[in-house]
Specification:
Immunoglobulin-like; five-stranded mixed β-sheet; single chain; flat; disordered N terminus; 0% helix; 208 residues; 49% strand
C-alpha cells in the first residue's frame, strides 16, 4: 500500500444525549484523519504537514537507515527505530510542533495543528514565538500566529512585565543590550478568553 501523501479517515462516533435518560438519542459521526510521513534516507517526507486537533500522524521508516521522530519539546519520542517500523502520535491541542531525528540533528520537520472551531472561540496559538540569538546592538524579531474570535489583542511581555507599545502579533527588540537577555512571551486575548504563549528567549548578548 502506498502511504506517502494519503490520508485515511477513522470514523468515531459521539453519542449526543439532549436529556439524561430520555429516548431519542442521536449519533453524530465525525472523522479523525491520519496523515502519513515517510522517513526516506535522511529526510522526513513531507517535511511540513498541517492537521487538526485529535488527528493522528503516522511516521513510516521507508529507507535503509535507523532514525527517530523526536519532538523538540518532548511531546513525543519514537525512540530509535529501523526500516519497516512505524510510529503514531495523536495531536490533542493546537500549535506548531517542530521535531527532529535524535541520530541526525540536521533532519528537521514540523507539524502544524489547528482547531476547527478556533475561529469562533477563545484564542488558540498556532505558532509559538521562537528563541532568538543576537549580538549586542542587533535586533531580535519575535512573532506569534494565533486564531480565534476576532478581534484578537496582543501584549508582549519581558520577564512577565508588559512592554509598552508591543501590541501586535510581531515584536522587534531593537538595539539589544545585555539587560534585554531573558524570556519573552505574548498574551493573546479576545472576548472569549486569554492565552499566553510559551516563553522564548533572547540570548548570547555579550556582557557589559
Amino acid at each position: 500500500m502506498k502511504r506517502n501523501g494519503f490520508r485515511r479517515n477513522i470514523l468515531t462516533a459521539t453519542l449526543l444525549v439532549g436529556t439524561l435518560g430520555m429516548p431519542g438519542a442521536a449519533w453524530q459521526v465525525s472523522a479523525a484523519v491520519v496523515t502519513n510521513i515517510n522517513i526516506v534516507d535522511f529526510a522526513f517526507t513531507p517535511p511540513a504537514v498541517s492537521v487538526q486537533v485529535n488527528d493522528q500522524v503516522v511516521w513510516t521508516w521507508a529507507g535503509a537507515a535507523n532514525h527517530s521522530s523526536t519532538s523538540d519539546t518532548g511531546l513525543w519520542n519514537s525512540g530509535i527505530l529501523g526500516p519497516g517500523s512505524s510510529f503514531t502520535n495523536a495531536f490533542l491541542s493546537a500549535g506548531n510542533f517542530p521535531y527532529h531525528c535524535a541520530l541526525h540533528a540536521f533532519m528537521t520537520a514540523s507539524i502544524t495543528v489547528t482547531s476547527g472551531a478556533s475561529t469562533n472561540g477563545p484564542p488558540v496559538i498556532l505558532t509559538q514565538p521562537q528563541d532568538q540569538t543576537v549580538g549586542q546592538g542587533q535586533n531580535a524579531a519575535f512573532s506569534v500566529t494565533a486564531a480565534g474570535l476576532a478581534p484578537l489583542s496582543y501584549q508582549w511581555q519581558f520577564q512577565a512585565t508588559n512592554l509598552p507599545g508591543a501590541t501586535g502579533s510581531a515584536f522587534t527588540l531593537t538595539n539589544a543590550q545585555p539587560a534585554d537577555a531573558g524570556p519573552y512571551a505574548v498574551v493573546v486575548s479576545n472576548l472569549a478568553g486569554t492565552i499566553t504563549s510559551s516563553k522564548s528567549r533572547a540570548s548570547n548578548l555579550p556582557a557589559s
